[in-house]
Design goal:
Blueprint (H helix, E strand, L loop, with lengths): L2 E5 L2 E4 L4 E8 L4 E10 L6 E7 L3 E4 L7 E6 L4 E6 L8 E10 L7 E4 L3 E6 L1
Parallel strand pairs: 2-11
Antiparallel strand pairs: 1-3, 3-8, 4-5, 4-9, 5-6, 7-8, 9-10, 9-11
């Protein structure tokens, strides 16, 4: 059974840094797109960073130059390096991945359980 497990959240002061990890476990054939989303209470989940096939990377405008997404394909793990954190970065961060479990199957989308990131002023 495919699972996405995030780690690395926590409490940090404004200007600080955190590194989130998302590990994909279970039998898979390949991973297409991986992404980080975040959500605050009462708001919709918003895309923070994506890594698509062909190594195409996109960032939310407000995190450009501060956040960096990376992948370790050998470990089926994705990271989000977050620097110069601001109080408005406070949210639950979710890992998302489009995964092909079998070579001849259809890709499916999976979500992690989310990790809390809190940035104090």
């Amino acid at each position: 059974q495919v699972q996405l497990v995030e780690s690395g959240g926590g409490l940090v002061q404004a200007g600080g840094s955190l590194r989130l990890s998302c590990a994909v476990s279970g039998g898979i054939f390949s991973i297409n797109t991986m992404a980080w989303y975040r959500q605050t209470p009462g708001n919709q989940r918003e895309m923070v960073a994506t890594w698509s096939l062909g190594d195409k990377i996109n960032y939310l405008d407000s995190v450009k130059g501060r956040f960096s997404i990376s992948r370790d394909n050998a470990l089926n793990t994705m990271y989000l390096e977050m620097n110069s954190l601001r109080p408005d970065d406070t949210a639950v961060y979710h890992c998302n991945a489009e995964i092909l479990e079998h070579e001849l199957g259809d890709p499916e989308t999976y979500w992690g359980q989310g990790v809390q990131v809190t940035v104090s002023s």
